[in-house]
């Protein structure tokens, strides 16, 4: 199995300006998406105290964010197909960074909910535009590695959020943490200047999105959307509450860690997450997209209940990277599978729909886990995500190899979902 480190052909392509800039733009967008989203998860305990907010309400606000992200992702899929991948990418980043900054000025729960709702619109648009940009810029034999590298930026953003919280919140409070989310807006200037549209992209003016639900494309849309909905439920239910699981009092099923230790444990977990993301590409090239994707989901289902019931900080610290590896690495597979299963003219809309309709289904996860945690403790709340990982693996078994063999009339993605 070739790894990213010892693959000279991959890095030779990465030195080409068009591919390098596309990869960097998508990775930065995804990293900052992660950071802005996870800043909220990291400051929930402090914000709850100041705003008089229950765990169920905090989870409901995250659910509102996911719902708006679904709408934004589907809408930006049209923007990406009609106006271009780079325009959709830069506009989505601008929206979610500005709205993150606005969270610093809220004084009521409805105000916070509104800011997070608006943030979600930009958050939802970033993924489909960035993934489509990379998929159409990189050749098939290296596409899985490139998209895995983009996906790994989520772990960096998550860890960056933990670092920002550790540095800022003890001295300036939780509101100042959100102000740090404004700075990434400057990246949109570089994207507009340096990142070009893929050579094969042309504005899709005469292709109806209804084609996703007819003929050969309909089964792909259904299965890919379904498995993504289940896996996103599991991910958001687990990782939106993981920081609170570490910091909540023992009486509420948490571990009572302070801000510094919670941030440290979170950063260590993201080391495993990063390795999971970047490992998926070489593994998928060697063993196939489908079997590796299913394996990641099954391993996540097995390890999460163990993580939820361990008692000592040492066990949490050691298991955290393992949970991160298996519980998030599969996302690299989704970006590869979905980008290869749909034609160029519909790719932005297809990926936006499949990913973000899944977000609608997963929007209940933060609220559900928060509600269960409030009644039965965080450990029990996190454990219910294991069933969602199992369901995602079961749906993924219906992926078909011939879905990537799209006819010329459908336009041509160039790889195999095996």
Brief sketch in words of this structure:
The protein is mainly α and 418 residues long. The chain has 18 helices and no strands.
Note the main attributes of this structure:
single chain, 418 residues, mainly alpha, 18 helices, disordered C terminus
Number of strands: 0
User: What would you call the shape?
Assistant: globular
How many helices?
18
* Span between termini: 17 Å
**Rg from Cα:** 20 Å
The ordered H/E elements are: HHHHHHHHHHHHHHHHHH
The proportion of strand residues reads under 5%
Descriptive report:
The protein is mainly α. It is 77% helix and 0% strand. Helix 3 runs antiparallel to helix 4 (85-102) and helix 3 packs parallel to helix 5 (109-137). It is globular. Residues 406-418 have low confidence and may be disordered.
List the helices and strands and how they pair.
Elements: H1 8-14, H2 17-51, H3 55-82, H4 85-102, H5 109-137, H6 140-172, H7 174-179, H8 187-194, H9 217-239, H10 242-247, H11 259-287, H12 289-309, H13 313-328, H14 330-341, H15 344-362, H16 364-376, H17 378-383, H18 385-396
Helix pairs in contact: 2-4, 2-5, 2-6, 3-4, 3-5, 3-15, 3-16, 4-5, 4-8, 5-15, 6-11, 6-14, 9-14, 9-15, 9-16, 9-18, 11-12, 11-13, 11-14, 12-13, 12-14, 12-18
């Amino acid at each position: 199995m070739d790894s990213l480190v010892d693959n000279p052909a991959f890095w030779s392509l990465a030195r080409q300006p068009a591919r390098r800039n596309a990869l960097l733009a998508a990775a930065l967008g995804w990293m900052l998406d992660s950071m802005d989203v996870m800043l909220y998860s990291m400051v929930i305990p402090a914000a709850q105290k100041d705003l008089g907010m229950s765990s169920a309400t905090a989870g409901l606000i995250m659910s509102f964010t996911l719902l708006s992200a679904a709408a934004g992702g589907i809408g930006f899929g049209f923007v990406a197909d009609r106006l271009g991948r780079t325009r959709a990418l830069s506009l989505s980043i601008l929206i979610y960074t500005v709205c993150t900054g606005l969270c610093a000025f809220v004084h009521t729960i409805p105000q916070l909910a509104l800011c997070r709702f608006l943030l979600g619109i930009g958050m939802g648009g970033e993924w489909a535009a960035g993934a489509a940009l990379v998929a159409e810029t990189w050749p098939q034999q290296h596409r899985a590695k490139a998209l895995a590298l983009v996906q790994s930026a989520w772990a960096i953003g998550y860890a960056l959020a933990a670092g920002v919280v550790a540095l800022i919140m003890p001295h300036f409070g939780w509101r100042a943490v959100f102000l740090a989310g404004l700075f990434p807006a400057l990246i949109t200037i570089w994207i507009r200047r340096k990142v070009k549209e893929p050579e094969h992209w042309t504005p899709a003016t005469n292709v109806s999105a209804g084609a996703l639900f007819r003929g050969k494309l309909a089964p792909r849309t259904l299965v890919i959307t379904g498995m993504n909905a289940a896996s996103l439920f599991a991910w958001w239910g687990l990782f939106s509450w993981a920081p609170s699981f570490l910091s909540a009092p023992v009486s509420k099923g948490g571990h009572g860690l302070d801000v510094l230790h919670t941030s440290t444990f979170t950063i260590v977990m993201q080391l495993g997450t990063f390795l999971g993301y970047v490992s998926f590409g070489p593994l998928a090239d060697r063993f196939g997209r489908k079997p590796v994707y299913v394996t990641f989901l099954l391993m996540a289902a097995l390890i999460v209940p163990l993580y939820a019931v361990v008692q000592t900080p040492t066990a949490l610290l050691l298991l955290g990277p393992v949970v991160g590896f298996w519980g998030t690495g599969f996302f690299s597979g989704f970006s590869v599978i979905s980008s290869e299963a749909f034609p160029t003219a519909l790719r932005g809309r297809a990926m936006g729909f499949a990913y973000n309709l899944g977000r609608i289904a997963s929007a209940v996860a933060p609220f559900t886990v928060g509600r269960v945690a409030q009644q039965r403790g965080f450990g029990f709340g996190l454990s219910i995500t294991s069933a969602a990982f199992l369901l995602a693996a079961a749906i993924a078994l219906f992926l078909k190899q011939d879905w990537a063999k799209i006819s010329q009339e459908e336009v041509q993605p160039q790889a195999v979902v095996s």
